[in-house]
Amino acid sequence: MLDDDRQLFRVDARRRLLVIGGVSGLLMGTIGARLFYLQLLKGGQYHDLAEDNRISLRPISPPRGRILDRSGLVLVENRPDYLLTVIPELTGDLKETLQELQRHLHLTEEEVTDALKQARNQRRFLPLRVRAHLDWDEVSRVETRLYDLPGVSIQIQALRHYPYGNLCSHALGYIGELNENEKKDPENQRMRPGEMIGKSGVERSYEMTLRGVEGVRELEVNAMGREVRELRFTPPTPGRDLSLTIDVELQQVAVDAMVGQTGAVVALDPRNGEVLVMASLPSYDPNEFIRGISGKLWKRLMADDDRPMINKAVQGQYPPGSTFKIATALAALEGRIDPEQRFFCPGGYFRYNHYYHCWRNGGHGSVNLMQAIEQSCDVYFYHVGEILGVDFIDRVARKLGLGQLSGIPLEGEKAGSIPSREWKKAVLGHPWYPGETLVNAIGQGYVTTTPLQLAVMIAAVANGGRLHRPTLVRQDGRPLQEPPKVSPFQHEHLVLLRRGLEQVMHGARGTAHRAKLMFEVQAGGKTGTAQVMRHRRTAEGKIIKSSERRHQDHALFVGYAPLDAPEIAIAVVVEHGGHGGSTAAPISKKIMDYYFARQRGALEEWRHAVGQA
Amino acid sequence: MPLGRPEGLLSPSSGSAEETRVGERLRRFPVALLLMLTALVCLGEVVLYSAVGGMEQLDATLRQGVRFIVSATVMMVVSVTDGRLFRRYAYVFYGGVLFLLVLVFLAGTVGMGARRWLSLGFMNLQPSEPMKLAIILALARYFHDRAVSKGIGVRDFLVAGVMIAMPMGLILKQPDLGTAILLLGVGGTVVFVAGLSWKAILGLVAMGGSVLPVAWNFLHDYQKKRIFTLFDPEADPLGAGYHIIQSKIAVGSGGLLGKGFMAGSQSRLEFLPERHTDFIFSVLAEEWGFAGAMVLMTLYALVIVRGLVIAASAKDRFGLLVASGVTALFAIQVVVNMGMVIGLLPVVGIPLPLISYGGSSMVTVMLAMGLLAHVSVQSTK
User: Fold this and answer.
1) Each residue's pLDDT tens digit, A554-613
2) Catalytic residue among A200, A322, A376, A420
3) Residue A46 CB-density burial (10 A; 0-12 exposed, 13-18 middle, 19+ buried)
4) B340, closest residue in chain A (CA to CA)
5) Which of A326, B12, B106, B201 is deepest in the core (most CB within 10 A)?
6) Which residues, including other chains, have CB under 8 Å from residue A98's CB and lie 6 or more apart?
7) Yes or no, beta carbons of B249 and A46 under 8 Å apart
8) What is the nearest CA distance from A222 to chain B, expressed in angstroms?
9) What's the CATH number of domain A58-243, 3.40.50.150, 3.90.1310.10, 3.40.50.720, 3.40.50.2300?
10) Residue A322 is among the residues annotated as catalytic for this protein
């Protein structure tokens, strides 16, 4: 750089710095002028305003909306909770008062230290929360001594209560104290620390409906900030009640039917996508969260191998096993494979240097599509997979809602996975092997689905191909979102498929023929038995059973009824439950039997039948 | 006595005339600047003690004091560091912080509001703070290298624009309007001092005027609401307008000499929001009146003038630009914070330098002052 160039630059830079100085001066001057105006010219006026400003605003939390089931039974409500408070400045000596309370109520050392700590951090005229959830006995013990304990009082606050305990916990969710992250959400800006907010389930998804608008108490306070009188009271607007589509009686039947098992059950109304049952087992009791969950219980819930905190209905991703043959069979029809064409099943299929077993060691002989669905012949579907290829089946499965989010308004829904060549390349980085197409066609290998997806799929098959977005909230029987008017499948294909599903229940060799419904209600369905791990076999091909529970197959069933005008569609997944036909199908049967028995006013008969079984 | 400097870290060449020993540099440290900053912090401590109130007040005041002492030490270290170090690593620093901002953008959970922090497990990092310094260093390096003598060309302007726009966009997305505007102001100042032609400035002002209505649509609803309430706070006195009204009453009722230490009824009675952080100026104005506010403003003005003088006498272009950027960073925070407290500007959440309670703000300001002192040390002949 030349010297005079440098010089030029310096002169220019100095001029520019002067401009910056000038602008800064101007801005500071404006602020000064504004201060002059506010403090000196208008000072008197503002002084009066400040004197009058003895109004303190105390926000009042609105009562949270209740949650009801489809017939109006209360699933979530608010209950009064008794809270022991102490106002430090009214007590003679705070420590003494607390010691006195300790004698009568068995306060722990921790509760006393917490109260003293609170006292150091807030003003002396504000109440300390010493203990919540007092029972009647404790309340009366305090009430009788109030006269000797100035400053002590019993306050009532609303406490969320879930009358059905752990029955619906995953769909309902629970609430908890607002955390730092949630506070940052603009929606929650006006909430105060310690206020309760929905953490999961419907409590979270419909937070804004349930919350309501907070009210304000305008108080006149004296110079120390102590309350003198109430000036105005704006009552809080309570949160709105939420009517769910859940049928709590049916939910109870489903959970009872799953006794001793883990897994999930979903029942939908195929006409509009309303969720009638959503059960995930094992479960937890949300009431325990409300009372402040203990660290030990939380750890136990999180460490439990059966994962009680997971909503398996929407977050559990299971291999669908033979229930996936619904998609493969539909693909066969859409792919122009003649339903009358027969494939021979000798008990397995030797291909690509590997023997692919059929579940039935002795084989099914020569079967067409109807028979293959009825008896769930694996070899038939190996052939279908080989003819159509994985990508074709993938497209049909997606049209049935598999491999994608159903869009149910619940946090954390999982999409499962429907593999294609592209998918495997992208996700796993490996090319597709032809043998995998065979495994894929019977719902094993990379295929995973959630129980909700299976329910949506069978509902779509039942209602003529319309894929509903499932909903948990009632809107007068209207679907959450109108599904496409035109089915993506040919009508005749669905008719044929449904005939096959009917045979599963009603055919002599149907895999679920022992799960026929009461009252002669006709139903359609498909069983599934999903391998969790590769079976070890004897030289003759017999499966060597492992005795460990976690090695047992998952049992699945999807079904709908009645055949001619379906009202209910169900998916059942029993983890490590063994066979779909013997474990999962009877669970669906119990639920459907109850549904139709109640409809016919024949619950006595149902109880009798269940009692006998 | 040579204090010794870490050879490997700094320039391998040694013995040049410009290089002075650390001890000598320390002797050139601008003590006056540090004294002004100390005066500001002392004033701040008095107000803070009153604003926090209750049992916590001593604790908070002490913590703020310790923060100042620690960051003043950092300021000194920065001031005596080899200058080439800042220049050499300016881009690396900028790139690193930009990367962290992208991480913040990606790592947040969908559906949550502001995403400003990166959780490192043991601490939370807010990359928008170091970005305030990184943008100054990176732009200074750029224009230092380009050495434009006849004003900035279109290409230089575009490069600088992109350098400012990238972090700004990411911070706007968080959403943090205050910091984004701060970046624009600071970056703009550096570009201006580097020699943006007057014609271009006129053009930009015209363009800005026409883009403003479009930008309005990109603001979040709550941000729009803040701007609306600025012009008409009484429309929502219990909601969005509450802060502004209460703050104005506090400031106005202070009068000439204020209500006295610990005697501000507005601050005492918890009418004021955020009174120990963003709104601390209204506590000062209420308790110490117009007189107290003027003392504060005079101290700020002294620092700003000192900053501009250091910039004008900088050894090279890099120093000039760093000093101007740092001074702008300081001045804009002062003006925007005060403007918002007295109801001239919308509430955007920018702290008052050295007065507001808070660690990250203090560290950033003092690091910036360290850079300023550094330029001053280098220039003194």
Assistant:
1) 999 999 989 989 999 999 999 998 888 889 999 999 999 999 999 988 888 888 887 765
2) A322
3) buried
4) A31
5) A326
6) A86, A107, A112, A115, A116, A130
7) yes
8) 9
9) 3.90.1310.10
10) yes
